[in-house]
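Researcher: Quick sanity check before group meeting.
Model: Go ahead. Protein one:
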Amino acid sequence: MEKLVPKTCLCVIALLFLAINVKAQEDYALIRKNFNVLASNLYHDLNSTQDTLVLQCPELIRRVYTIGDSAGLIDYQVDKNEFNVPLNKLEKGRHVFVVDRARHKIVFQIEILQTRRITAHTELTNMSIVAVEPAKLTYEPEPDLVVSIDTKEPILKPYNITEKNRGNIQAREEAMRLIKEKREKELIEIERKQRDHRYEGNSMKTREDAIRLIKERRQKELAEVQRKQRAFRYEGSKVQSREEAVRRAREKRQKELVEVERKRKAYRKNQE
């Protein structure tokens, strides 16, 4: 009986390690949240399958993107209060995310624990599906739902009115639609950059404006200092002129007293 107890303990420990390893292998990603006070109203967490980042915020989420070594892998212009970010484009490793809101940028980290996998749920969550041809959709009964869409299309040359061979040229309507979409994206990007510039520059359009305002403020300060110096000199000159006037008045008074005394002596002399 005493020999069986250590064996039973070893079996229990082995089963615990096995369960932990299985659980670790099942996890696809981990998120290290931002617990800053400014990020308290931003819900950022993984979904149940851990292959999608779920974002919810009462403020408008303007943009979601990655920085550092994984810069450019994730970059979505959102302009919504809720958004789901698929993680199947990320390789195994750690990735730093930035959620750009109206006033603050929230930074957190997601670590991908397994190799890349493609799921239809994450890819189709943020799309508006109009129609899907049944012939281009295949389904395989796997543990995870996998949908492959055949996107092979003939490569068309750009629209050119002078091209003689019109068989492999874009239609004029298609070319105009693509140009319109490109212009709309450029306008949205310009407006976003202008908003970023206003927030970051404290309502200053350019760096030259800031320098000009600083120079104007310094010139005003110098002018104020010069005005005070002139006022001080003027007050000093007024004090000097007042002292001079008092001195002259005293001298005049003394002369008048001398003259009065001289006339009195002359009058007494005549009386005698």
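Researcher: Fine. The other one?
Model: Protein two, sequence then structure:
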Amino acid sequence: MILERLSSADLVTSRLLLTALRDAQHWTFKQALPEYAPFAYSLADLLEDYVRSGRLAPGSGFWRLAVEEVLLPLVDSDGQVHSEVLRLLLSVAKKVGAQVAGSPVRSAAVQLRLPAAWQGC
């Protein structure tokens, strides 16, 4: 439902659903984590489209919720999810530059355990 609402550019409902998902914290159970891989992969892809089109600003409230509070905890659900999150972060860095992207990219880089060069963005 979240992906459907995001695809329809319904950010109000998307925010409510993402908040409910975050608050449920179902993914804290290791055995449940792989179930979220397809969702996390698709979420990262949609968010990258939003960044490229200018509909999502890194560091915004929606960014913090969708990326930092929902997507990053799911990054270890699958290798492909990890790759998509990296692609999202690269897209952000290219679009807005290191100075503006610094804080959100640095925060994500630390959570992804990326090399220090990335964390210095």
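Researcher: One line on it for the slide.
Model: Residues 2-119 form one domain.
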